Amino acid sequence: MFHLVQSIYHKINEKPEYSVLILGIENSGKTTFLEQLKKKSGMNYKDFNKIMPTMGQNVANIPIQNGRLTQQTESDFNRQANKTDMVLRVWDLSGQTRLRRLWAKYFDKCHAIIYIMDSSFDDIEKENFDRRMESCVDVFKKDVLEILNAHDKNIPILILANKQDKADVLDIVDLKMAFNKALAKMDHDFDSRILPISATTGEGIDTCINWLVMRLIKNSEYRPPIYK
Ligand SMILES: Nc1nc2c(ncn2[C@@H]2O[C@H](COP(=O)(O)OP(=O)(O)OP(=O)(O)O)[C@@H](O)[C@H]2O)c(=O)[nH]1
Ligand SMILES: [Mg+2]
């Protein structure tokens, strides 16, 4: 009975909030992606050209309505809070080697992970691109999958092939093969998807948010949101 009353109270007064971590090696576009989410939500956002490498963390609350980002100003958000069905609390961390060990500290409270990679190779030799790609999948395996797996934490993972606005980008099929190989080695059958995006132009972001929201809801029985 108490639970029923509690859940009715939640439904009327509070919004479900899901924490989402944005991870990936340095320079992959994590902070730009977060700023693009703010831009598409009608919030104040940083000029993309002025984004510096992240040292600590950036966090933003992104309102969602009907599985989509909503264009509303921050004051609208406060006034029309009832129109928001859920909030994504999005954490952007640093991808630098020495700071990656901090990622795991956030795993306990997160509901999903977005792993971003730079899929373009316009400005680098193919050989260097292959090395970067290898390191990117390796970090995904060691610093994300193996830790989640060891802690029995089965949460949705969205892999984003970023910088699709550039001229030369790796085929999504090749990316799928590389990431699926890492995923196949785990005990858990992680719910995952690879999608192409451009954090700077915003291309592909609506599809990616839609996938994420559906999976967060699907997984909410196992990993319930926090009501705020
Ligand atoms: N062309 C293009 N450039 C992008 C895109 N996303 C990010 N960039 C550029 O890539 C560089 C790194 O972007 P950040 O958002 O700072 O990358 P990050 O992953 O947050 O990096 P760290 O904070 O160091 O871990 C910047 O010069 C961005 O402008 C994109 O979609 N297209
Ligand atoms: Mg950053």
Automatic annotation (TrEMBL):
Binding positions (GTP): G24, I25, E26, N27, S28, G29, K30, T31, G95, N162, K163, Q164, D165
This protein's UniProt keywords: GTP-binding, Magnesium, Metal-binding, Nucleotide-binding
GO molecular function terms listed in the Swiss-Prot or TrEMBL record: GTP binding; GTPase activity; metal ion binding
Cellular component GO terms, alphabetical: Golgi apparatus; nuclear outer membrane-endoplasmic reticulum membrane network
InterPro entries: P-loop_NTPase (IPR027417), Small_GTP-bd (IPR005225), Small_GTPase_ARF (IPR024156), Small_GTPase_ARF/SAR (IPR006689)
SUPFAM superfamilies per UniProt: P-loop containing nucleoside triphosphate hydrolases (SSF52540)
Name of the protein described by the UniProt record: Related to ADP-ribosylation factor-like protein 3
Protein species of origin: Hanseniaspora guilliermondii
